Amino acid sequence: MTDLQAPETLARPLATRVAGLPEAAVMPAGAPIPDVVIAAAVAALEQGKTHYTDRPGILGLRQWVSDTLKGTAQINLKPGDITITCGSTEARFVTFKRLLKPGETILCPGDSSRILGAAHLIGLSIVTTAADPTAVRLVYLTPDVPAAERDSLLTQAAAHQWWVLWDISAASSDFHPAQNTALAPRVITVGSLSPMMPGWRVGWMGGSEMADKLRAYKQSMTICTTSISQWAGIGAVVP
To answer: Is the whole model's pTM more than 0.85, yes or no?
Structure first.
């Protein structure tokens, strides 16, 4: 038998895109896992909680997201509007894949490292300024974007019917684009439990008039997020 050769199918479009993922799309290892997270995971294993959860995610975890958004930013998203994802990376990918087409444009005025991988795989362009607002389909914002710049972009988002992806994976904020009721139907919020439990792949997405369709797309890929990770997440955030 000869040495294994790279298959010719590597030239296919998806394999080529995967092979070309930018280094910034690979996130570094995080901090040690808190004991409470490990204890919650062990307890779930001992109780046999190893099967599929509710497809949207464990209700207690979705309720925590709902309560957190209401407490920090006065945003009223019901647990039914929220889907637990395999990390915030999946949430971003699902949002882009479901709402945008290859060749379309994301406006990202700040750090784009968290969206490079998804944009690359789908074939999306990322720009830092809206030279042609009509070419933009979605604006990606985080709490790190200066308020004046953020507000200007949200004004354009309302005028040009952009989708808004508000990513609070790394930092929370008392501001939220959906506080503007005119924008709210087109605002998708993404968050993550990675600061508390890096590597366990627990994130979430919620809101917008596309919430159900985004959930359905996530479920078509991964059905539901790993049960043990979700139960560990409960241990991380619910007293």
So the answer is: yes
